[in-house]
Amino acid sequence: MPMLYISDVVEKAHGRQLDEIAPNWTRFVAHPDAGEPDYEAIDFFYFSGDIYPERVRDFAVAALKSSNLRWLHTFSAGVDAPFFQSLLKQGVRLTTSSGVHAVPIAQTVMLYLLALTRDLPGWLGDQSNRVWNPRPIGALQGLRAAVLGMGPIGYEISRLCRAMRMDSIGFRRTVQGDEPCTTYEMAEIDSHLPEMDVIILALPLTPETDHILDASRLSRLKPGVLIVNIGRGACIDEEALARGLRSGQVGGAGLDVFFEEPLPSESPLWQMPNVIITPHSSGEEPGNHAQATRIFLENAVRYQRGHPLLNAVAPMEFL
Q: What's the predicted TM-score (pTM) here?
């Protein structure tokens, strides 16, 4: 009988549903006292959000040891890690819960932009010092924003940009024609980025996106540009970004991801008043894990029936 590898948390919450959905599947339930499974017997794997981050390594090792693994579903949208790529190369079908985190991430992007344009850090500093300091502030209305990466997260960011009365354009590897804003291919970014007031990176890490905002591109951006990164830290040259923030070439940054995580204490970004740092948490929202698992359960039904799986991933198919 086919075997599914899941966490004890998922088993407790959804074991009965799985009994109904896949009565012919056995399950190995991972918990601290479970011992090792028969790795050759594992066919399916659910990489659920409750294991992150403490149990990720154990689950990843188990998946890699499962030589007959046929399908793995992950709670995350990002699958650019070598772990996932190695599974794809071995012929494992890979699906994700892409889209689950789009709304909270897009809202966090707006949080960064509102805070930076309206000087929330300065207001909070004044409040802590009991200083009454009226002064001019900025606004989002009328700003031009470029959204790099037009997956579900980029779509939702673009929608909220419009709600904030910003003008937005998108960039992706291949334009589909159904994007919620004018969208260009990634190869055209140098023709448009220097005109932008805001640049938002919602990109996975690929050879094409690694350091896509390097020192050269940063130097050609509009002075005072705001930069937000909720994709992957390595998409930006952090040293060049810090120089741009000091000089004023970059007016402010909202950063949820970094080249090294946790962000080292010696990073100059920590002390910059025009930087908002969050600990890779922009997508956190109550109920996220449950929503991700619903997609997994739907895919389990589809797998049983031989139907196409939701959010299927092909190697390097990320933008």
A: 0.90
